[in-house]
Amino acid sequence: MIHVNGSVAEFHERVIPDDLDAPEVWLFEPAQRSLVLGSAQDPTTARADAASAYGVSVVRRRSGGGAVYVDPLRCLWFDVVLPRSDARWSDDVRESTYWLGEAWMRALRASGFDASLYEGGLEQTPWGRLVCFAALGPGEVLIDGRKAVGISQRRTRAGARFQCIVYDHWDPYDVLDLLELSPEDRLAAASDLAGIATGVGGKLDVVRDAIMQELLGA
44-99: per-residue pLDDT in tens? Predict the structure, then answer.
């Protein structure tokens, strides 16, 4: 496991080594709260004034999907980097995250949660293109039927980088207050998203240890 400290922007600039020959886990401890936009989202998606007022940096990741709120005190965030030579590699982008989702499911169940794996295609929801936790993607994991583990993926010739995030609790306003929305749309989105996702409460450390046990065996 590789511990990485620093800014969210610096973390996203990390590249998959061309000579990667074994899986790696990059456990990230961000220096500040951040709003992470998906690769296809325009920078104007974010409210620059609100981000500045709240002390939140705005960055873009190289993988797709909606915006993600990162708080170093309230989330568990790490990447799993898998070389193409690994037995778990799949050329099917949809199925390629299942092994990781299954590891998350086992870790959450070991931590006392009713967890299940989502094996469908990318959900098309009213707010899914805007907010990551507003829709489910293949291999993501639910607790009691609500999204708990977000996973995004970036693939290169060397391998795949899977970015994972789990929150202590889910509050749609964490991300919605940082996005360029009308007051009416923000209220509607918050209402729609309030019960769509969930967190792990005070068990972030327990979940971290359980998923690392699954991935590292130690």
Answer: 999 999 999 999 999 998 888 899 999 999 999 999 999 999 999 999 999 999 99
**CB-based contacts of 85-91 (< 8 A; 24+ apart in sequence):** 85/21, 86/22, 86/23, 86/159, 89/159, 89/160
**Taking CA 52 as the corner, what is the angle to CA 50 and CA 55, rounded to the nearest 5 degrees?**
105
Which of 149, 12, 151, 56 is CA-nearest to residue 95?
Answer: 151
Assign domain 1-217 one CATH number from 3.40.1370.10, 3.30.50.10, 3.30.930.10, 3.30.230.10: 3.30.930.10
pTM, two decimals, is 0.94
The strand pair at 68-70 and 34-37 is best described as: antiparallel
Alpha carbon distance 84, 20 (integer Å):
9
State which amino acid sits at residue 166.
V
